[in-house]
Design goal:
It contains 17 helices and 65 strands. Strands 30, 31, 32, 33, 36, 37, 39, 40, 44 and 45 form a ten-stranded antiparallel sheet that branches. Strands 46-47-48-52-53-54-55 form a seven-stranded parallel sheet.
Length: about 1000
């Protein structure tokens, strides 16, 4: 009888433990997660003896938990001996441990340690010891689970990551055995987070054929359908009707969208997505309803239909709209997913002209744009490209700088001596707008038809779509696209594996997309140049900044031609020819190849030297009075700061940010913030919704990284930057996607609600379309809209050996300053590298130096200093004082590269740049000589407007830069190797 009673007690005890609904709570950072993990089970032991047995129904989402170890502490935080485990799996586990006293015990069940770099950690979990419980310790359950705690609320699995058991899932499948799928409507406050498991919340709720939500007038309302595939589903479709009230008022269906099926691409084009779901998986469908402000308060009802595999489910959606009107569509509360509609935004897509650019003007086949002219040949290709910038880059000339020796053209060689002969094209200007001009032309030969479409935009970007169709089957020994440059306009070259500098006599280059992020080159002079890249219709922007090898370029079918294609650049007669060749190939009748290419005509605009002198960046969050006292005028707020903690998601602490910016403005300071899209913080409210879009927004990858990512995202992502102090873990974005629409809307919101004066970009993962859009929203209503770009040197294996300036040149027209950057060597590189690859001057920009705080003497001949606040040693204040004492604002900068420079030295390794003011001149000298030297100045006094007999040449004392001196005759001036001087002539 006693034995039967004992068995009954065990059974009821087990039933109680299994039936209990566990309590999930916030641990309020009561333990060190980096040694104990983010999760623990709180156990109450009230038994007799010293062996505790607890059954934990933890319902874990991680796979193979039996392979992970755990740690048990008593109430005094002392380690407790684990005696063994039984039935250890995702759903539950029987755990036996040594219990010397009654009371609370804590089972830390995902302990890890961080390996790898601090900013790119790898969470490594404790291995299981595989202890088998001895028979003597195999006591009945005598301890209970009080609660499951997460170290903080952000790490909690409750409720959407608490899994259903296999039995519960099986019962559901049995219930709906004849169905292809089941739908679980879900509220926006419970984003669906698991793809491979059902949440226990749904087991308790059950599937439903209706959903009820509450919205306000004018609100961007969102909700979800969780589609649980009982069979593999292909091409899931959704449809919906108008929502109607009892009085026949309506919310039209045009205000409703399913983000996972339909949308608007980053470039404003319609987007239709194909959704498939493997059997046993969950696909989230996010719906947005933009409730018009004019909607009457009422209950609105309509049918939403989900179709797949010939089956359909009808969900009746009921939306109770209150009388309250939201002025901001609710976007001030993004936790309610009110900003998901931003993913389909078309904001700032119209190609309106952005300052300082001017509207395009068309005269016949010649298009005029700021400082440049573009002449089109009858075949649609450029006939001539000219610039009108002077050599100093501070003004315009009437005499043009010709970039081309002859028009761009193709050669289709049937044999090395015979080629296709094309008819004359029929050039037509098809569209004329202030920001864009389009044209087309068609030419044909015996075997080919070539359709050319060209587009020129106001900033000097030219896009060509060249469609070549085979009329007959034809073979080619080679296909060559020739860009014949005017030889006098090709002093410098950058790209195709060549660092920026004087153009080599010959460049030979072949495609190698697996290892090299190279498809472009820039050739030109400081005041006239041309960038071009080669692409086809299947171009996909690769990843950059450490991640190129994980998503490299796609080899163009046309230009690459199975790696037979390449480029050779060398002097040919009176021209400098860029020969873009493809090698031999055949085309069958009807075959189509696209030989697309893009051009950028440089410079984009004049140098704005006064902006450089007036806007002095302080790159650190800090006390505003202290910052103002340094002489800085613009504060850059990095991420991982109190007002901007989460990388590329500056929306959580926006009220603190606004308070800081308001105070800055009251003190005459501007504030720019770190915000780009290369990676996104795991704190983004929209993360589950973005993950539901498959790999549209987030790049696929091997997963790993910081523990939070592993515990909540499972796999198929690339772990990115991590901030240990605040445990901000980002993941890599995929490239061109709808998050860029959100980004533009977010920038607009920050301008209008927080008052930011611009943005600091830390490398760029979007294209020029998005850059133009953010420039428009940042500069709206006369806002400053300052954009400065930092790049680490991309010329390395992980970045595909690309030049930062080549990688980002399409963005240069919209930047105000460059900061190139980490891993740039300012000591061992020559002046031509400084000029072309670092300074920005050939493109109308100016910059600053970063690595090891730069070389201040060399920087000065390009108008560059280091950036204040970035490091303890970075201190441009002494140079700022020299600028102010001299009166640099309003001066005319005449660089050493200009034939107009009125000051030269007798040592070609010591260069001079002049800053000319009325009645006085500043001369910046910088040496690349291998040893200390003395130089003599050659001065054109007439150009300076000074009387040589009365002029004095002095060097003022500048802290950590130079000692005072006087050099009135301009002779025997000592210059230390690697350094220089600043001289004042007056």
């Amino acid at each position: 009888m006693k034995f039967k009673l004992f068995l009954i007690c065990i059974v009821f005890s087990a039933l109680y433990v299994n039936a209990q609904t566990l309590k999930y709570t916030n641990g309020n950072n009561a333990w060190n997660a980096d040694s104990l993990g983010n999760q623990r089970v709180v156990v109450q032991y009230s038994g007799s003896g010293n062996v505790a047995h607890v059954k934990v129904n933890w319902r874990r989402r991680d796979d193979h938990p039996e392979l992970k170890g755990f740690i048990i502490h008593d109430a005094n935080r002392k380690n407790v001996t684990v005696l063994g485990t039984e039935n250890f799996n995702r759903e539950s586990a029987d755990i036996y441990f040594k219990a010397n006293t009654k009371g609370k015990y804590f089972i830390y069940y995902l302990p890890y340690k961080n390996e790898g770099r601090s900013n790119y950690p790898k969470g490594v979990y404790l291995n299981a010891e595989q202890l088998k419980i001895s028979k003597s310790d195999q006591v009945p359950v005598n301890a209970s689970v009080l609660e499951i705690q997460s170290v903080d609320a952000f790490n909690s699995f409750y409720p959407m990551e608490v899994i259903a058991t296999a039995k519960e899932a099986s019962q559901l499948k049995t219930k709906y055995a004849s169905e292809a799928f089941v739908i679980f409507p879900e509220d926006r406050m419970f984003p669906i987070k698991m793809q491979h498991d059902l949440p226990y919340r749904w087991i308790k709720k059950g599937a439903a054929n209706s959903f009820t939500g509450n919205a306000k007038r004018g609100e961007n309302y969102a909700f979800q359908f969780g589609v649980y595939a009982l069979k593999s589903l292909s091409d899931v479709k959704v449809s919906f009707e108008d929502l109607k009230s009892a009085t026949n008022k309506s919310i039209p269906a045009r205000y409703i969208n399913c983000l996972n099926i339909n949308g608007t691409s980053y470039d404003g084009k319609p987007l239709i997505k194909n959704v498939s779901v493997s059997a046993g998986n969950v696909q989230t469908l996010w719906f947005t309803i933009d409730v018009p402000k004019t909607t009457s308060a009422s209950l609105y009802t309509g049918k939403f239909i989900v179709k797949a595999n010939g089956k359909s489910k009808v969900i009746v959606v009921k939306l109770l709209v209150s009388n309250e009107v939201l002025a901001d569509a609710g976007v001030g509360e993004p936790i309610k997913q009110t900003r998901l509609t931003w993913l389909n935004s078309r904001m700032a897509q119209a190609n309106t002209v952005v300052a300082p650019y001017t509207p395009l003007k068309v005269d016949g086949n010649i298009i005029s744009l700021l400082g440049r002219k573009f002449e089109i040949n009858n075949d649609g290709f450029p006939k001539q490209i000219q610039t009108f910038f002077n050599a100093d880059m501070t003004g315009y000339t009437e005499k043009p700088n010709n970039i081309l020796y002859e028009p761009l053209h193709f050669h289709f060689y049937n044999t090395p001596k015979i080629q296709e002969k094309f008819s004359t094209g029929n050039l037509q200007i098809t569209s004329k707008e202030s920001g864009t001009v389009k044209w087309s032309s068609t030419s044909s030969s015996e075997n080919l038809k070539m359709d050319v479409e060209g587009t020129l935009e106001f900033d000097g970007y030219v896009h060509y779509v060249v469609k070549v169709t085979a009329i007959n089957e034809v073979a080619f020994s080679n296909i060559n696209f020739h860009i014949p440059f005017e030889k006098g306009s090709t002093k410098y070259l950058m790209g195709l594996g060549e660092k920026g500098g004087v153009r080599p006599d010959t460049v030979k280059w072949k495609w190698d997309v697996a290892h090299k992020n190279q498809d472009a080159v820039w050739i030109g002079n400081v005041n006239a140049g041309l960038y071009y890249n080669l692409r086809d219709e299947n171009y996909v922007r690769p990843l950059n900044t450490n991640f190129y090898l994980q998503k490299p370029l796609v080899l163009p079918k046309s230009w690459g031609n199975d790696d037979k294609g390449g480029i050779q650049i060398n002097v040919k007669g009176s021209s400098m020819l860029a020969d873009n060749f493809t090698g031999s190939r055949t085309m069958k009748k009807g075959d189509i190849l696209y030989y697309n290419f893009n051009l950028l005509i440089t410079p984009f605009h004049l140098l704005n030297t006064d902006f450089q002198w007036d806007n002095r960046f302080y790159h650190k969050y800090g006390n505003l009075d202290s910052i103002k006292s340094t002489g800085a005028t613009v504060v850059n707020i990095h991420h991982a700061t109190p007002i901007n903690p989460w990388i590329n998601y500056p929306f959580i602490e926006w009220k603190k940010m606004k308070g800081y910016i308001d105070e800055a403005h009251s003190k005459g300071l501007k504030v720019k913030i770190y915000n780009t899209v290369r990676e996104l913080s795991n704190h983004a409210y929209e993360l589950p919704a973005l993950r539901s879009l498959d790999t549209e927004v987030y790049s696929p990858g091997k997963g790993g990284g910081f523990s939070w990512l592993q515990e909540h995202l499972d796999s198929n992502y690339i772990a990115a930057w991590f901030v240990p102090e605040i445990k901000d873990a980002a993941i890599i974005n995929s490239g061109m996607n709808r998050w860029h629409n959100y980004y533009v809307e977010g920038m607009n919101w920050l301008v209008n609600n927080v008052g930011i004066d611009g943005v600091y970009l830390d490398d760029v993962a979007f294209d020029r379309i998005t850059m133009k859009r953010i420039k428009r929203v940042l500069t709206q209503d006369n806002h400053p809209g300052i954009i400065d770009l930092h790049s680490a040197n991309q010329y390395n294996k992980n970045d595909g050996f690309n030049n930062s300036a080549i990688l980002y040149m399409e963005h240069f027209p919209y930047l105000n300053r460059l900061w190139f950057g980490e891993y740039f060597d300012y000591e061992k590189n020559n002046p031509d590298f400084f000029l072309t690859e670092v300074s920005g001057i050939p493109f109308g920009l100016m910059g600053e130096m970063l690595q090891n705080d730069g070389n201040p003497w060399r920087g000065m001949i390009y108008g560059m200093t280091s950036r204040l606040g970035w490091s303890d040693k970075s201190n441009p204040k002494p140079l700022w004082k020299v600028w102010d004492d001299f009166g640099l604002k309003g001066s005319e900068m005449i660089g050493y590269w200009s034939e107009n420079c009125p000051v030269k030295t007798d040592n070609n390794k010591v260069l001079a740049t002049v800053y000319k003011q009325k009645g006085k001149t500043m001369i910046a000298l910088a040496s690349w000589d291998d040893s200390n030297t003395t130089i003599n100045l050659s001065i054109d006094w007439n150009k300076l407007g000074l009387d040589a007999s009365k002029a004095k040449i002095t060097a003022a004392e500048i802290d950590k830069f130079q000692k005072a001196g006087s050099y009135n005759d301009g002779k025997s001036i000592p210059v230390e190797k690697g350094k220089g001087l600043i001289l004042i002539v007056e």
